Write the structure tokens for this entry.
Amino acid sequence: MDQKELREWEARCIQEEPPACRAGCPLNVDARAFVLFMARGDLDAARAVLEKSMPLAAVTARLCEAPCEAFCVRRDLGGAIAVGGLERLCIRDTCPKGKIPRLPARPRKVAVFGSGPSGLTVAFDLARKGYPISVYHLGEKPGGWLRQLPESVLPPSALEEELQRLGALHVTFVAVPALDCVLVETHPADAVYVGQDDTISPDLAALLDSPDPETMALERPGWFTGGMEGRRFRFIDAVSHGREAAVSMDRFLQNASLTGSRVPLRCGRTDLFTQTFGVEPVHRIPPEDPSGYTREEASREAGRCLDCQCLECVKHCVYLSGHGGYPKAYARRVFNNAAIVQGMRQANTFINSCSLCGQCETLCPNDFSMADLCLDARRDMVREGRMPPSAHWFALEEMRAAKDTQSALLRHAPETDKSAALFFPGCQLAGIRPEQTLRLYDRLLESEPETGIWLDCCAAPAHWAGRQDEFKELLRAMETAWEGVGRPRVLTACSTCLKMFREHLPAFGAVSVWTLLAENGVQAASPRPPLALSDPCTARHDTQTREAVRSLLAGLGQPLADLPMSGELTECCGFGGLMDNANPALARKVAQARVAQSTADFLTYCAMCREQLARTGKAALHILDLLFPDAGHPATEAPAGISARRVNRRRLRNEVLARHGLDQAPREAWEDVRIAVSDSAAALLEERRILEDDVRQVLYLAAKGGRCLRHGTDGRRIAAAVLGEVTFWVEYRDTAEVFEILGAWSHRMRITGGRI
Amino acid sequence: MSMIFMPQDMDWVCEPCGERMESGKVELTYLGNAFHVELPVCPRCGAVYIYEELALGRIREVEQLLEDK
């Protein structure tokens, strides 16, 4: 990812867009933050928000006509938040936050003619930037029409205090009898501002044509004006003119473009999306005393604020919400991770934890895809040799094992020499439900006797791991194998395989077996209580399969319970994208969050979803349990686990071979090592991703080499072996008939100065 | 990582050597990095014992640090 790509990614996430209230404020006051502090009763913090963006806050907050309220998202849900009323309470009940900082003095001089709100704003903004300012005003004291306001609206003391603060910023006030043409034209200042919201002489007024509406610049260089007649809001529009003029004058005095990279006023325009579905209307709380809110009333009124945020993706995703940010921030995190030359790449696990499920993209008003972001990053990591070797190791081993000669198989149906269709159950269904896989195959053979079977893995793990070269090679090998059996149509029982084939091997013409079964119809069975149907995330955009499954269930007479995030919005079970490999703790949380969405038992048509959901302890069924009730598994059955899955794939292959009257693959010698694994030891092996096959191999190799460690007193033994990338250690007791497994652990570090 | 790592229970005997494990120098490597440590070693055949707590603790920690470097 380069800087340009980062900017493109960042631009897609709208979370940092301003809320409508801020976008509607000509001074860019963060009204959302202000109101939230008011709701918490933290008036000092609320005032700090105002002072950050407002000139002369004690005056502005009292007189602001609150144009933001017209844009408030609460507007149609009980009325806009009374930001104006809250500002007045806040400014009345708090003190200014100390001295206003001023930048080092600058040599060029500014003169402001007129001391209405716009002129005072110019003086405030430019004085802070270090310019010496002279403000010319009529009458004894500056302030113009502000001095005519009743005390209840603007106490003279509040205005005096703000004028004193201006004085502290090196603003000089000069009383003059008239604000006329001669005064301005003869003034030696480098830039001048004429505030038309004060009384100026007709000759000066005649000299001022219409300023540029964006920059407030007049045609005459160095002349600026604002506060013209026809303002919508007498006060805040004048302040806005002053602010825009001050920006221009600063640029003018630095010989910079008045318009280049200038941020225009948003006038309420923002791309921030705020979901209001399900938000109950709450009526505006008017102050009991018309003179203003009490603190308690203000807190309640501010409490109606919706705290407008997008976070559509984050709200529904455990992964996104668990990392404390949102896609825009995550894009930068991913970029920074790649840019690290020395030091730790702290976002590796973050990048590898995304399930690539695509829910965020579906929810996002702007189609931001964390899946694409993370998959691209993984590919870069693999290409640049910085992918942590352990991140996807187990899944890749699983994939390679499912593809090896012990588990993989491609054959026409028994007693046929060609295939019109080819059943590809998927490696997880084969490993988790081998008997049901055969039952399903038999059902497919009833409809089409020339249906071959292909036991293999679709290579999704290589794709998810970002291993593009390996993935391409595996796809090529699969295509060659498929061509070798006459290019039959592929029928899959796994949504991931289906997605992989459709996207990467479209010639397969892959369809879901559920679609086929739905077309053929099913007989009604005795229904169970309503089940929560969890669509696999890889079926998110596969309407055809999702509808076929629902049609099958309707045919069976099976009612469904409501599950909020379903269909296109479905959620991952925690396995997708190899989340379970890179971040098992997160995968558990994801599955927990999923099953918490319904009190009903779960139902799915992805074997791995069933495995992951059942791992939480939730009762969960696979659709095959309903289609073949006599071969059904109880909803409360524990997941098969990694060891059984590996063995089951071998068993299934042997059973298919037996149907053809062919010999089974020769057993490996270590397969006959007899082990006894208690439930607690099995749970430990599962958690540490150590297969019983690994344990058997270690014990076999140890026995063959006659090597182990023996405990001096209690008979325990420990054996170790390097299997592939990993060194495995097994603690056991060697009884006459069986090895009783007590524990096992592994590491990737190699012993080079020594042996095991 | 020049350190000494010993399990609480050192009552382990190497088979078939019949020798009790002792502290000995061992080199461990990962991703091109080498570490010299002292671990339980058979004084006769040099067999090393990487005990569970070490494998799942310090070794895993260092593996992850090196993978993210």
Q: What stands out?
A: The longest strand of chain B covers residues 22-30. Chain B touches chain A through 39 residues (CB under 8 Å). The first helix of chain B runs from residue 52 to 67.
